[in-house]
Amino acid sequence: MQQEKFPTVIIIGAGPGGLALYHALIKNKDRKKFNVKIFERESGPKDRWQGYHIGLASRGIRSLMNCIPSSIALNIPKAIPNPIPDVEYHGISVTDHTGNLLLKPPLKQFKDVYEIVENPDHFVSLTVAYRDRLRDVLLDDVPVQWDKKCIGYEETEGGVLVNFEDGSQEFCDILVGADGVNSPVRKQKIPELQINEVGATFVNANVAVPKHLMERLIKVHGNSLVQKTLGLNGDSTLIASRLIPIEQEQDKYNSDEIYYRTTIAFFYPSELDNDETENFKVNDNDPASVIKHVKHIIQKLRPECEMTDILLELWDLAPKTTPNDPVKYPFKTYNPIQRRKVKDINPLSVNSWTSSRVTLIGDAAHAMSPLLGLGTTNAVQDANILSQALLNYTPENSISCIKEYENEMLKRASADVLNSRDVTLKQLTKVGYFGFIIRNSILKITNIIMNIRDLLANFMK
Ligand SMILES: Cc1cc2nc3c(=O)[nH]c(=O)nc-3n(C[C@H](O)[C@H](O)[C@H](O)COP(=O)(O)OP(=O)(O)OC[C@H]3O[C@@H](n4cnc5c(N)ncnc54)[C@H](O)[C@@H]3O)c2cc1C
């Protein structure tokens, strides 16, 4: 008897997007069976530091849960811990440089990720997830082929031949580039689609914040998992934390105090990197000099106040050297504290999208400014929508399945790229004394309107 030959899907990149797609295609195998292969350029799960915090909006969590089987879903709270009731407030709040509240969109609190899935219409929320643990959870049961750097492909009418740096080749019916912002698959498929620099630079660091400092921060800023402060000179800060004590690390610090996992980020106009008044040289390979640079700009741009003092203390906690303890830090490659340009890719900025056997998901198609925290959300939404479209796959209609996915993705992701860019550009604008009053008033009025709308919507339910 002749064995049935299933179509092959190759995924390049085992980030959140690629892994979510792998699970979704396998999960749906009773409805449509594919031979799915996933290739990653890293040499193994511990090759590279896998990040700290990522934002996930409720639509992203719902898509993720749609993609993964129940065995993986059971482990999701390791990566997206349940909120601590009455302690953690999911969502974002925006203040001015002194901590004066400007905007706190009314986001619904939820008790766990399952609640978001069960009540899709009533829950709009943003949470802070652990990227490193999400990667570990999503890797479970996935036969990633490591050390396989894709360098290009050859597409014919009958399929796609994928080329790897080690000289090997793989044939498939559909190729999905889930290979991040510098995607070689995108560069070949749509060379005109360029990475755009928004004009902002940011530096971020992952720190363990002692309870007494976190309490001071919450006192000045208010309590929410993502805290943003807007300066007067195009500078802004983003602080993302979970108020879950870092138990396993207590011995490293003062054992009497609790510490919290926190990401601090400072955004500023890129031209400030050419500041001639700075009397030292910033070297992006030397974290100590980058931290000094950030503190220098904060002190230069922000008036003295409790919020400024807290920011400077937070930056003092950032590690000034590369970690060298292989037990606590088992990665070959470190993610150094360095200046990074805010970049994005608007997939609709070119009109040369032609659906073919080669498509893109996640950052490969639409990297976005991190300011709204929607990058991972869109990557897993892509995985979900593409897997749904492929349920109708037949050899004759493969391109129309891809087209169906791309039509939805291009519209949704482009809107989020442009919104994130818009917010970044607004924050880059210097405000004088009157500008400061106008900006604060507009945001406060917006806040009142958003909260009244939410109250009314709840009242009408
Ligand atoms: C190591 C790492 C750490 C990160 N840390 C954070 C963080 O702390 N906070 C945050 O907000 N965002 C972080 N991000 C970005 C965030 O994960 C993405 O913006 C978002 O989740 C979109 O996911 P993605 O799957 O589309 O792309 P990515 O998460 O970028 O994943 C792409 C994957 O493709 C692989 N890849 C790239 N090129 C090739 C190639 N030629 N051949 C084979 N494989 C390839 C990469 O190694 C990576 O594993 C990080 C990304 C990476 C890669």
From TrEMBL:
SUPFAM superfamilies per UniProt: FAD/NAD(P)-binding domain
Keywords for the protein's UniProt record, in alphabetical order: FAD, Flavoprotein, Membrane, Monooxygenase, Oxidoreductase, Transmembrane, Transmembrane helix
KW Zinc (keyword) present: no
FAD-binding domain mapped to chain residues: 337-415
A Pfam match: FAD_binding_3
GO molecular function per UniProt: FAD binding; monooxygenase activity
Keyword Protein transport: no
Protein name: FAD-binding domain-containing protein
The species this protein was found in: Glomus cerebriforme
